Amino acid sequence: MNLLVLLLSVFFSSGPELSFLNNRIVNAGQYREGELIEINSRIKNTGDEGLLIISTVATCNCTSVNYPKKTIAPGEEEEIKIRIDTNGKSGPGTVVVKLLTNTIDKYSLIRVDYVITK
Amino acid sequence: MSISIRKWNWHNQFYFNGFLLLLMCVFCLSSCDNREWDVPHYGRKELKEACFVADTIFMDGRRTSLLGQWLMTPETLCFFDECMVGVKVYSLSGDFIDEYIQEGRGPGEMISPSWISDYDSESETFVIQDINARLYRFTANFSCIWESRAAWFLTKSSRISDNHAMRKLYDYPDSEAHEIYEYNLDCHRIVATQNSVIMPIVSDHIKFNKYYITSHSRKYFRTAHTFMRYGTDSLDKAPVLFGNYPPIYKKGTLSMFSDYDFFQDKDTLFVSFAASPKIYKMLLDGTILSSFGYSEKDITSRYPGIRTFQAYEEKYQVQREKFGYYSRLSCYNGYVFRTCKLDGNSLWKLQVYERENGNLVYDLIIPNNIEILGYADGFYYAVAGEDLEKERFIIIRFKLT
Question: What is the chain B residue with the closest CA to A23?
Fold first, then answer.
């Protein structure tokens, strides 16, 4: 019986799943050159196994990403902090942060659109 | 006294003659410069009554950045994500079918595919360029039938290569090093045929010649080439640079409107520049043959000039909103399509010309700028933007009736 439950749980297990609690595509609005853009993105593990963010890559060197290094338990919520340095930037821009995770899809993206004025 | 007056007159005459000679030289040089653009202009206005009615197809973009390029094959619409390796393939009705190309360095994998050509219906293929100068040719069902490496590099950012020497050359340019070519990011178009690829380029890099802060950007438009052509069977040879900006760019300093779009029809290229109402037909060596096309009456073309590329970066957004310009150019099913933004508002129009005779047959108001991707089963398919809230692509399909 225990073996059957174990087999069924393995069969029906969906694994870890990353869900965004706020919009994944963020319109950060207007900033003056030199100001810091700070975006906090809340995520939740909506799967049934521990979620791990392995690494992050941003499309711009001006971006730093602070993400939870621990395993996020099923149902647990966490925050990803994105900081964009706007020095030397002007006009509209976009930064995309790619999260490498242990989910089936492997990658999740957060996109930040902004406009820099002088 | 009289001698001194005579001396003065002689000098005066000498300088005056010299000045006249200089003026004539300048006049001759400027007319020689523009003579190649004085070509026959053909086509008439034969407008038909029509209104723009389109079906909207929403496509799921939840696992993408919604930033990238589209490609239409006879039966599919493919999205190449700019921020993630991989191609998402949808049916023409908008259903997700499959995903191709993985990130990596193994067979069938790519590191950072950056340029994707239009689908060539003659060879039934398209070309993808990855970093490190690697080129791939694919069929419509994503079988890679050819793969090679060029002897030169094409850049659009520091993601040129993971080769340290190349990255250093990009950051600290050397005018003697000719193996790097810069892709023109404003153009969003690559054309590939059976044996060759044509790309829009920035041939006169602002880092080399200090146009960014010090020089007059008009000089850039006098000297810069607009296209690069390379044979896919001769990648060891340097690409051929050809094409220039039309006279309107040489009179003014129109960096805000320096983008252009083009398509290839056998041995000719059709090019439309943002600031020029004419659509030019040119040979693949840059020789201008003829032109057609009408200006929109709500595009005044009174573009203000700027002196430097630094000013361009500061004023780009404001000027693009304020002034009208010509945008996307494409050709399907015997019709040439060109989108135009009108002055001072966000209204867009779609001009439709007959390819054979250059006649303007439709001039339609459209909701926003669209990029026509292709023609299938009696419909034209176009990208009309993204719904960022619901994370989906907006594709439209329409008929010309």
Answer: B389
The number of C-beta contacts closer than 8 angstroms across A and B is 38
Q: What is the pTM of this model?
A: 0.84
Looking at the complex, report in whole angstroms how far the Cα of residue A25 sits from the nearest Cα belonging to chain B: 7
Tell whether B67 lies on the interface with A, counting CB pairs under 8 A: yes
pLDDT tens track for A37-88: 999 999 999 999 999 999 998 888 899 999 999 999 999 999 999 999 998 8
Q: How far is A9 from chain B (nearest CA, A)?
A: 27
* Residue the block writes with tokens 């290229």: B269
The H or E element spanning position B339 is strand B335-341
pLDDT band at B114 (very low <50, low <70, confident <90, very high): confident
Token duo for residue B207: 């880092």
Question: Contact B313/A94, CB-based, under 8 Å?
Answer: no
Q: How many CB atoms lie within 10 A of CB B381?
A: 24
Could you tell me the pLDDT band of residue B5, with boundaries at 50, 70 and 90?
very low
Does the pLDDT value for residue B3 go beyond 50? Answer: no
CB contact under 8 A, A25 and B64: no
A9 touching chain B per CB within 8 A: no
Domain boundaries defined on chain A:
15-117
Query: Rounded to whole angstroms, how far apart are CA atoms B206 and B278?
Result: 27
Topology classification of domain A15-117: Immunoglobulin-like (2.60.40)
- Specify the higher pLDDT residue, B82 or B288: B288
Please tell me the distance from the alpha carbon of residue B269 to that of residue B286, in angstroms, as a whole number: 9
- The beta-carbon neighbor of B66 closest among A25, A27, A91 is A25
Q: How far is CA B281 from the centre of its chain?
A: 14
Choose the closest CB to B83 out of A59, A92, A105.
A59
Gap between the Cα atoms of B257 and B338, Å rounded: 16
Is B124 exposed, middle or buried, given 0-12, 13-18 or 19+ CB atoms closer than 10 A?
middle
List Cβ<8 Å contacts ≥24 apart for A74-78.
A74/A16, A74/A45, A74/A46, A74/A47, A74/A48, A74/A49, A74/A50, A75/A44, A75/A45, A75/A46, A76/A44, A76/A45, A77/A21, A77/A42, A77/A43, A77/A44, A78/A42, A78/A43, A78/A44
Tokens of B366: 């459209």
Is A109 in contact with B389 (Cβ distance < 8 A)?
A: no
Give contacts of B317 with chain A, Cβ < 8 Å: 91-92, 115
Which of A59, A91, A108 has the CB atom closest to B317's CB atom?
A91
Are B389 and A23 inside 8 Å of each other by CB? yes
